[in-house]
Amino acid sequence: MIKLGIFLAVLFVVTFYKIYKDYEGDKKKFALDLGLLLFLLFATGFSKYTRVYLPLFVIHLALTLFAWIWFYLYLWGRTKRIWYIFAPILSIGAFFLIGFLASQS
């Protein structure tokens, strides 16, 4: 758990430095980039809860890794699409759906 916290702190500092360094007065882009960063930190931190369902945990880790890679591609200007960054929402939604269906029986 400590390792995940340290990893997230390092990712946050490095990414926030990149976002702040590229800030050129465009408050809308700055807020969007910071919001995407906070969402990815939330999705990465949510991984500890998905361990209950091991196949979903593996899928969530893959989607989160994909989202981080896509986010860095977006930050360095390689792509303009940000929808792929929200990929971990699929596994988070599946987690809550499985929990809801399991509680019904």
How is this structure best described in words?
The protein is 75% helix and 0% strand. The longest helix is centred in the middle third of the chain and has 22 residues, at 54-75. It has one domain. With 105 residues, it is an all-alpha fold.
Question: Summary?
Answer:
The protein is mostly helical and 105 residues long. The chain has one domain (2-104). It is built from 4 helices and no strands.
Instruction: Report the end-to-end length measured between terminal Cα atoms.
Output: 32 Å
Overall mean pLDDT stands at 90
Indicate the multimeric state. Answer: single chain
Low-confidence regions: none
> How many DSSP H or I helices?
4
Rg estimate, integer Å: 15 Å
How many strand units?
A: 0
Beta-strand share of residues: under 5%
One letter per element, helices H and strands E, the order comes to: HHHH
Task: Assign an overall shape.
Answer: elongated
- The helix content is over 70%
- Domain module count: 1
**How would you characterize the largest beta sheet?**
none
- SSE class: mainly alpha
Supply the key terms:
75% helix, mainly alpha, 105 residues, elongated, single chain
How are the elements arranged and paired?
Blueprint: H1 2-22, H2 27-45, H3 54-75, H4 88-104
